[in-house]
Amino acid sequence: MTIKILSSIMTKGKTTGRELFERIGCPSRILAPMVDQSELAWRILSRRYGATLCYTPMFHAKLFATSEKYRRDMWCELDGNSDIDRPLIVQFCANDPEYLLAAAKLVQDKCDAVDLNLGCPQGIAKKGHYGSFLMEEWDLIHKLIRTLHDNLDVPVTAKIRVFPEREKTLEYAKMVLDAGAQFLTVHGRLREQKGQKTGLANWNIIKYLRDNLPSETVFFANGNILYPEDISRCMGTIECDAVMSAEGNLYNPGLFNVDHVEEKDKTFPRVDKIVREYFEIVKECRESNASRSAMKSHFFKILRPFLANHTDIRSELASMSAKSSLEEWEEKIVVPVEKTVATIFAQDDIEEKDVITVGGQELWGGAYKSIPYWRCQPYFRPVDGVTGDKRAVEALKANIEDKDDIKKRKAETVLEKTANKDGKTKL
């Protein structure tokens, strides 16, 4: 497909990307769309801790359009409520324009835009033929986006992953914009970078896209956000409009509290406080089946460092289910966590223990922090006993050593050629 971004891409009367961005307050901290994890209750909590725009979980367009049960499980009357859940972008995965449009029309009155997922790398996306497994089918992607662009009352946006080649990624991004996407979110990882192979996101290629796409493009960056300081560092490095976080937010919703980086209770909140606050929100969202279903997974992530030290609570949490009553959740999980942390803070030397220390600047540009286990914090996925933070540093060191070695060999070759030319050395 030949790509040429059209200067008059917008349908007459429809909001452009920049107009939409300004209308919703120029949000700079975005809760990412995630499978079953960015549901209503979690969005409400994330907004309280600094998120200025939220995406729904990824919805399956065909199921959303055709199954009343699926819609009931994923969506309720409070979703997109103007008082508690805006601005909001609803994300769908799809491979059929008609089903995508039918699904989007069911929510267009309850959101600010509809997003097409082009980044999901999971096996279920491969099996269902959507997400990042459409990356090679540019004509289909163009048709999916253009169908929404031409027929919805609200704008369409898109979230993509990158190719190994930055020039190909740029052409891909141009195609997505040409189809009618009004916001472009770039996750700086390859399709293969998932799970234990996640690795670092490539900010260089995201920056390359930002520099080579039209300046009016509303552009979001996604990847490598561990701490609140990383948000401003990312925006300064890439010059993007906003930064999106998925896993970082799940383990620490305080991640978005960039205005309170010196206040540990806001940026690295105590797990007992977050568990209680989130639980009370779930109670208020009783009609949201998705919020009840997601609660166990959220608790495990919030409490990850805590549970390793209090295995009795971990065992209780493992035994809970979406069918457990809210009273059981409070009695078996919420209250025990509160009591345990209260005991920790009753220690005479708690002020000495409850300290966050910052390490030196790492090769990736930021610094790792040591955080007490009773506070929310990033998760570094271990592989063969080596955690993700250590793997990242080792990979960057190896990359630098490889580059230095290449430079050294090139320099030696130049010297050899020069010596040969002068007749001083015979190889």
Automatic annotation (TrEMBL):
This is tRNA-dihydrouridine(16/17) synthase [NAD(P)(+)]. Residues 30-339 form the DUS-like FMN-binding domain. The keyword ATP-binding does not apply. Its cofactor is FMN. Belongs to the Dus family. Dus1 subfamily. GO terms for biological process: mRNA processing. Its EC number is 1.3.1.88. The keyword Transmembrane helix does not apply. It comes from the Eukaryota. GO terms for molecular function: flavin adenine dinucleotide binding; tRNA-dihydrouridine16 synthase activity; tRNA-dihydrouridine17 synthase activity. Signal peptide: none annotated. It catalyses: a 5,6-dihydrouridine in mRNA + NAD(+) = a uridine in mRNA + NADH + H(+); 5,6-dihydrouridine(17) in tRNA + NAD(+) = uridine(17) in tRNA + NADH + H(+); 5,6-dihydrouridine(16) in tRNA + NAD(+) = uridine(16) in tRNA + NADH + H(+); 5,6-dihydrouridine(16) in tRNA + NADP(+) = uridine(16) in tRNA + NADPH + H(+). It comes from Kazachstania africana (strain ATCC 22294 / BCRC 22015 / CBS 2517 / CECT 1963 / NBRC 1671 / NRRL Y-8276). Keywords: Flavoprotein, FMN, mRNA processing, NAD, NADP, Oxidoreductase, tRNA processing.
